[in-house]
Design brief:
Layout lengths: L3 E2 L4 E5 L5 H15 L5 H4 L3 H17 L3 E7 L2 E12 L4 E8 L8 H15 L5 E7 L3 H9 L3 E12 L2 E11 H5 L1
Parallel strand pairs: 5-6
Antiparallel strand pairs: 1-2, 2-3, 3-4, 4-5, 6-8, 7-8
Helix pairs in contact: 1-3
């Protein structure tokens, strides 16, 4: 899809199965932090499962139903953003993100998410972009706010994560709101 600069020392680029070793090393560095709210930490528990996760997104990209991108800071993979779901016929996509602790507080997720949302709306004709987040994940909620998203509501006790029931907040931005 693209390689986009996210500032002088960071860039956004596709994350491919051949990068599984780098992705797994990144997960190892940030596993505890990332795993507080993001299932990738549990899904990429070894090199084989990391490769399988990336292969799943390669298949989604081939089918135009999802995509995954890494964020490189000083040429080191430190996080990423993705379209967990893309339903082009319905004009809907769900954006997600993760970041290892060494890269927090630099605005990388906000900048990378803006690139994805802009591409989805302007290039692919997506009408609604969603951000689904545990109510306990305050940093991710802050990103949704910075992106100009509206909180649509809370699905109480919606999912079980690591044995604990979580509320799920639904945030979104519509194409006309993004364009303005």
């Amino acid at each position: 899809m693209f390689v986009k600069p996210l500032g002088a020392d960071a860039e956004l680029r596709p994350l491919e199965p051949w990068q599984a070793e780098e992705f797994f090393a990144h997960m190892e560095r940030g596993r505890e932090f990332i795993g507080q709210h993001i299932g990738f930490a549990d899904a990429a528990k070894d090199l084989e499962s990391a490769r399988k996760l990336l292969q799943g997104y390669a298949e989604k990209a081939a089918n135009d139903t999802g995509r995954i991108f890494g964020i490189w800071l000083d040429d080191k993979l430190v996080g990423g953003v993705l379209f967990r779901v893309m339903d082009i016929p319905q004009g809907r996509a769900e954006v997600g993100c993760w970041l290892e602790p060494s890269a927090t507080g630099k605005g990388l997720i906000t900048r990378a998410s803006k690139v994805l949302i802009d591409w989805a709306i302007r290039e692919r004709g997506v009408h609604r972009v969603e951000w689904l987040v545990s109510s306990a994940n305050a940093p991710s909620i802050a990103v949704a706010r910075r992106l100009g998203m509206s909180r649509d509501g809370v699905l109480r006790s919606y999912f079980l994560y690591r044995g604990v029931r979580q509320d799920l907040e639904v945030w979104s931005v519509l194409a006309p709101e993004w364009e303005s």
